[in-house]
Amino acid sequence: MTRPFLFPTLLLGAAIVLSGCETTNEDEWTGGARKPFDQAERTCEEQADRIAEASERPAFFTECMRAFGWTRRSDAD
Questions:
Q1: Residues 6+ apart with CB under 8 A from 60
Q2: What is the largest CA-CA distance in the chain?
Q3: What residues make up the domain containing 62?
Q4: What are 37-55's pLDDT values in tens digits?
């Protein structure tokens, strides 16, 4: 009886987990005097993943990147 609900539940869980991810690329950022982009991004993603409230992760990620000397370009989407 629980089998029909297992797959949709797994899909929903995966969607929730992935929605908290911040997808970036170096072209959307400027700076980097303190830490190379890839290292800063990896560090900030790992730390943001520890935040329980998914809606707070993007702001945390942006501030974390700023701490490493990276700021999002104003023309980045």
A1: 44, 47, 48, 51
A2: 57
A3: 3-72
A4: 999 999 999 999 999 999 9
